[in-house]
Specification:
By secondary structure, the protein is α/β, with parallel strands linked by helices. The protein has a single domain (2-119), classed as Transcription Regulator spoIIAA (2-Layer Sandwich), CATH 3.30.750. The protein contains 4 helices and 7 strands. A hairpin with a 7-residue loop joins strand 1 and strand 2 (12-17). It is globular. The model has no long low-confidence stretch (mean pLDDT 88).
Length: 125
């Protein structure tokens, strides 16, 4: 299950993953939130948190996640992943190397640092 988190700036999509993720979670929660933010912002920030109750993701959802990443690859300015599980942190680190934007992985105990980093203004190049 994916749940949108409140109290983030409008240019940020913040979700927490709990239990088992299925295709409906992406179709009904994440995709509409991203599309909505992109109507008002050229790029957005993503907060993706894995709750301690997270059990896994269905194969169909993996495909949806890959397609979402492909179609929105250049739409993110920064991504934060919060996870305590070593396997999830490792997978996030691997995927971070494929993203064109900065990605940082934090433990859930580092929420304040993660939020501060996510809200930093991008450095002009």
């Amino acid at each position: 299950m994916l749940t949108l988190l409140p109290d983030f700036p409008h240019d940020t999509v913040a979700v927490v993953a709990q239990d088992l993720l299925c295709s409906d979670d992406y179709a009904q929660v994440l995709e509409p939130a991203i599309e909505s933010r992109l109507q008002d912002h050229a790029s957005i920030r993503l907060w993706y948190e894995f709750d301690a109750s997270f059990k896994g993701i269905t194969v169909g959802t993996l495909w949806n996640e890959a397609m979402l990443g492909f179609f929105h690859l250049s739409d993110f300015s920064r991504i934060v992943v919060l996870a305590d599980d070593a396997v999830m942190r490792g997978m996030a680190q691997t995927l971070a190397g494929m993203m064109p934007c900065p990605v940082k992985i934090y433990s859930t105990s580092e929420r304040e640092s993660a939020r501060a980093w996510l809200q930093k203004e991008p450095v002009a190049v």
